């Protein structure tokens, strides 16, 4: 009983996880966008390739630690994956039986416009969950103890995205799993098929567009900000780089990952009016080795 629901929920979880997987295509597209932006007159005297791939950034101690943390976290996640999936399979059927979820549920295909709206809703919903967790990690001392490791980076590259303490990763994935389960149950009872969501390379359409338009440069030294009010709709690299700044007026600002609307609604938005010189890291940073990163 409930095999259909389990299959449906498993597909939804796979869809969610694919949104946060690192594809090489968005990375190269992001770098291409930055090259276009850097061709602006203000950067005319800069060697653009040298600026993008500066040895001072990519060979820094902070970036080297990013690589070590990414590799070790991958090993940790890989080691735990089978246990997590086993646990999920053990509780999914009893839970669905307890909730009296039927073996099958008929679904109606969505029109293109409704599929786009549903994809946008899912993107906004997941981003709100991430915003809530992210803000809690900054404002609750116990959670900040684990999230501060991400902010200890003194140079930013796309690799810094993977710079997280395992406890912080578990908190994030735990919150996302709960949110996804709620969404899955709601869609299931509403007769909505997860396959109706619009994806590109198995990534939510809106997450893919934002990532391709420079999203991976949110963790980088490349200052790119959107104009014509677009920066109020979509997070720009500059917007998130401000979040990593040590400056006092940047503290506890710009928590959103994709949509600044949540920062605007909850009054944590800071929109730079011009390019700002930023210093990254945290005060009294002692995380210079892999051991210090995981133990302090």
Which terms summarize this structure?
mainly alpha; 2 strands; two-stranded antiparallel ribbon; 1% strand; 296 residues; globular
Short précis:
By secondary structure, this protein is mostly helical. 57% of the residues lie in helices and 1% in strands.
Mean pLDDT: 77
| Rg on CA atoms, Å | 20 Å
What summary fits the major beta sheet? 2 strands, antiparallel
Q: How would you spell out the order of helices and strands?
A: HHHHHHHHEEHHHH
Task: Walk me through this protein's architecture.
The radius of gyration is 20 Å and the shape is globular. It has a two-stranded antiparallel ribbon with strand order 1-2. Helix content is 57%, strand content 1%. About 3% of the residues have low confidence. It has twelve helices and two strands. Strand 1 and strand 2 form a beta hairpin. The chain is mostly helical and 296 residues long.
Note the topology.
Layout: H1 3-19, H2 24-38, H3 48-52, H4 55-58, H5 61-98, H6 112-139, H7 141-151, H8 166-190, E1 199-200, E2 203-204, H9 205-212, H10 237-243, H11 261-265, H12 290-295
Antiparallel strand pairs: 1-2
